[in-house]
Every structure is written in C-alpha cells, then in structure tokens.
Amino acid sequence: MTARRAARKNGTRGGKRMPGAIEPRLLTHYREVARPVLREQFGFPNPHQIPQVVKVTLNVGVGEGSRDRKLVESVAGELAVISGQKAVITRARRSISNFRLREGMAVGATVTLRRRGMWEFLDRFVSVAVPRIRDFRGLNTRSFDGRGNYTVGIREQIIFPEVDYDKVRQIHGMDVTVVTSTDKDDQAYALLRQLGFPFRGEIPVIIGAQAS
Prior knowledge:
The chain is α+β, with helices and mostly antiparallel strands. 31% of the residues lie in helices and 17% in strands. The chain contains five helices and seven strands. It has helices at residues 3-10, 25-42, 69-83, 115-129, 185-194, and strands at 12-13, 16-17, 53-61, 88-91, 106-113, 150-154, 174-180. The strands form two sheets. It has a five-stranded antiparallel beta sheet with strand order 4-5-3-7-6. A two-stranded antiparallel sheet has the order 1-2. Strand 1 and strand 2 form a beta hairpin. Helix 2 crosses helix 5 (185-194). The longest helix has 18 residues, at 25-42. It starts with a helix and ends in an 18-residue tail after the last helix. The model is unreliable at 1-10 and 12-16 (pLDDT under 50).
C-alpha cells in the first residue's frame, strides 16, 4: 500500500483530516470537552498554551532477542497489530560481553504514533485495554517524568484484545509513553485525566460526556 493510499484509508492527507473523514472519537472529545476545561482550570490567555498530546511511543525490550530472532519478530508483529503501524526493530548500540550482546543485535521493538493513529490507539488503550489489567486499581500518578510526559508499564501484552493469545510466543511487558506539549506535570496530569485515563484515587472522565 502506498503512502497516499494509506493516508486516504486513515482519512488524512499531509497530517490533516480529509473532508468527509470521520474524526477519532477521542480527538473530538479533546477539542470539544477537554480543551475548554483545561483552559478554564489553568486560566490560559492564549489557546495555543493549552496542553495536547504530541505523540505516543510503545516500546518492548526483549532480553532473549540476541539469541532468538523469531521472538523479536513476534514482538514486532504484536506491536504492529496493537498499534496499527509497522514496528521498528531496536538494536544494541554497543557490545556487552557479560550479556553475550554484540553491537547491532536485535533487542526489542518500538512504535511511535502521531496524529490520527495516536488518538485511535489512546482511545482503545484507555477504554478497552487498561480495564483488562489484572487486579487493576488505577494508573500510578507518580509516573510522570518531571517534563510533562507519562509512562505506563504494562506487564502483559495480552491486555490488548488485538493480540491472538494462541499465537503468543512469550508473555512480555511494554512501556507506553505519552509525550505532551507541556513541560509541567500538573498540566499533563490534568490533560490525561480529561482524556479518560483512570488514575488511582480519581473518578475517570467519561469520554463523550459534555463539559459541565
């Protein structure tokens, strides 16, 4: 599939929504509900100051990757299914003899999502995948990095319903990192909460609800 055909399928062209394309539900919620709430909460005089999600990164490290190429390929395939985008194989930057690791060996896979794919993934992640976490009691509010970015550590990739359990070679975890446009954790927290992230001790915002 060419880049142009893929863009038409996703309803975008040059990163912009094409006329007639259905806008991702979470993006609509952000524009119509979250932005007004955030602007009032923080008193932003300029609408461009309102925080937004810039990109989402999914990253899996495979310790056995240097000895099992098929495992890395399997992980990359799962990431592609979960994200809807081809994963990139990550490789060792240097050799470490104690771990039998040579520079250039495959050690994992990663995907970076932006625009439409980012919004669609976040919607599925918050609404479908996170509630499937075993003994889930809410997302940790301390996982911000001090620069407005948030990382969720997932222990099992099978919380994503797109993953076919019968084809899983190995249960593994992954990191999901949400990069925002703000460098302040309190603003990033407020943004993600408005996007439905079920933080521990907080009542989740219902996506699709109107701003009060």
